[in-house]
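Lab notes, practical 5.
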Amino acid sequence: MVATPTKPLTLDEFLALPETEPASEFVDGKIVQKPMPKRKHSVIQAKLTAAINQIAEPQKLAFAFPELRCTFDNRSLVPDVVVLEWQTIEFDADGEPTDDVFVAPDWTIEILSPNQSANSVIDKILHCVNNGTQLGWLIDASDRSVLTFTPNQTPRLYADEQSLPVLDKLTLVITPVQVFSWLKLGQD
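Output from the prediction step:
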C-alpha cells in the first residue's frame, strides 16, 4: 500500500471524495491506496468468491462480495473479499442490497500482493476482528499458506491439506491446496 501524503482528514471528508482505482482506504486519518491486483490475486479472489457463494447464497446464509467498502470504527476498508451473513446484509425497498456498509464484515479475506506489507494487511484484519468480524484470512500465494484470525485467539497458519476455518453457518470445506490449485486455470 502506498500512503498518500495529505493533511489529516475526517472519515466524513474521506467518504465524500470520489472513488479511486485501485480503491483507497481510510486508516488512522490517512488515505492509503491499495495496490493494483495482479493476475494470481484476481484468480484467487474470483474463485474463492464463487466457491463461497455457491454454498452460501442458495440457502441465504451469507454472500461473498469482492472489494466491498466497509466503514466502521473510524476506518473505511476495502478487503479483497467481504463475506456478510444474510441477516447482516441490508436490503432496500426493491429487495436489492444497499450500497453502503457501515459494519465490520462477518468474514474478511485479504490476498497478499507482491511488495505489499504483510503487517499493514494484518493490521486491517485485526481491526476487523477487534470490531465484530468472526473470521479473517490472509492468503499468501508466495508460500502457499493462509493465516487465520478469530476473536480472542492466537492467529493460526494453515498449509497443504489442512481444512481451513469458515463461518460456522457454512458447510464449505476448503484447504490451502485447493485455494492455490485454482491458479492452474483450466487444468485438473
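Observations recorded by the TA: The chain has one domain: 36-181. The mean pLDDT is 93.
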